[in-house]
Amino acid sequence: MITETRGLSVAAVLAAALIWSSSFAVTKVALAEVPPLTLGALRFVLAALVLGVAARRFPRPSVRQRRSIGFAGLLGITAYFALENAGVDLATASDATLIVAAYPIITLVLSGRTAFSPVRLTGMLVAVSGVWLVVRDQPGGHHLWGDLLLVAGGFAWAAFNVVARRDDSGASPIVVTYYQTLAGAGGFVLLSLTEASRWSVPSGGTWLRIAFLAGFCSVAAFLLYNHGLRGLEPSVAVNLLNVVPVAGLGWAVLLAGESLTWSQLVGGAVVLAGVSLGSLRRRTS
Predict the structure, then answer these.
(1) Rounded to an integer, what distance in angstroms lies between the CA atom of residue 159 and that of residue 274?
(2) What is the DSSP string of 189-232?
(3) φ, ψ for residue 259 (rounded to 5)?
(4) Integer distance in angstroms from the first to the last C-alpha of the chain?
(5) Within 13 A of 245's CA, how many CA atoms are on the CB side?
(6) CB distance 123 to 275 below 8 Å
(7) Alpha-carbon distance values, 281 to 54, 153, 196, 233, 235 (Å)
(8) Distances in Å between the alpha carbon of 79 and those of 66, 83, 146?
(9) Is 102 helix (H, G, I), strand (E, B) or coil?
(10) Rounded distance, CA 254 to CA 228, Å?
(11) Average confidence (pLDDT) per 10 residues, the chain, 285 residues
(12) Where are the domains of the chain?
């Protein structure tokens, strides 16, 4: 029974990763018309509205529990996605995917010594090396400030995993995700006011991209990830996200007609091997 539950948790996190794998490309295109903080505000306000309707069917956590859930939302939504959007705006997609691969190691450090094992750390390092093989031949310049923002986003995401893992409300993943998104959207609305001078009416195509980011990358993926996080250690859950750059490369082939190199194919296989190794639990007697 425990093995089956863990398998479902892994499947939920992997499904979230496959959805999130498309977000870098969609965000990059949308940023041509919408500034990064405003894009985050539009995305998560729409997501909060959708989740608010769905969450009405379930009991609400206590005020204390909602505050804790909201704090996790400020870390995992406002802080992380503000840094990610700004970083992607300045850097390239290749930079972003490579830096995201370092997030499991950051989470391992912040999770505490109980999350550490040599096998798991080895798997993370193998996955990072595989991501480097995937992205090393992709074109694009290096933008230091964008990369630094993406690295900072890794600390925000790691902190979100640690805080969200401590949720003791027992509430439905829909309710938890709603209060996380509501807090994150509120934080983004305040931050977006700094970009008021850059506001304009987006085109129809950009509104569709925002709707996709809200409905799939925010609502569906976060529901899946929160469900999976309940059955996994934070470091394992984040390590599974190393499939994002590999899947993202697949989206680029399907949607943009890009071609694959042998180093990218080998890198994808190495990433999957590292993710599998990093997900192993040390057996106890």
Answers:
(1) 23
(2) HHHHGGGGGG--PPPHHHHHHHHHIIIIIIIIHHHHHHHHHTTS
(3) -105, 155
(4) 18
(5) 34
(6) yes
(7) 35, 27, 49, 10, 11
(8) 18, 6, 15
(9) coil
(10) 28
(11) 73 88 84 94 95 91 92 94 88 67 70 64 77 63 72 88 83 89 96 95 94 92 82 74 75 64 74 71 44
(12) 18-116+142-231
| Type of residue found at 239 | N
> Distance of CA 115 to CAs 102, 147, 152, Å?
16, 27, 21
Global pTM?
Answer: 0.76
Check: CB of residue 21 under 8 Å from CB of residue 244.
yes
Cβ atoms within 10 Å, residue 251: 17
- Sign of the torsion angle spanned by Cα atoms 77, 230, 167, 220: positive
The greatest distance separating any two alpha carbons of the chain, rounded to the nearest whole angstrom, comes to: 62
Contact indicator for 178, 54 with CB cutoff of 8 Å = yes
Please name the residue that has the structure tokens 């989740």: 51
Q: Tell me if residue 171 falls in helix, strand or coil.
A: coil
